[in-house]
Sequence to fold (112 residues):
Amino acid sequence: MVPSGKSIVSGICQAYARLADSHLALGDYETALENAGRAVTHLNVRAWVYSTHLVAAVYGGTDADVESTRFKLLNFMPKFTCRHFPDNFPATDPHLRKIYLDDLRKAGIPEE
Fold:
């Protein structure tokens, strides 16, 4: 079976987001932001991809990047909160979860 175009695009989007996760964990924020930016340009974006881009923007982006990405994330998933994140998003490494939660808070994502 040959994968469809949609599944290939979804796979590419997820691969860029995972690369961004890896670079965030390594402290390479510029590369994390580049890969997260590539992930959100694909049509099949998920909320966790926007959260990856938002966290990368907190470290390596401008205030405008943070504001724009926060808007996109909350527009895509209006009930997204810091409390919601740990149970519903794929980052399982405790160090990476801490990075995410700290930076989601810095970016203005509500606690509840």
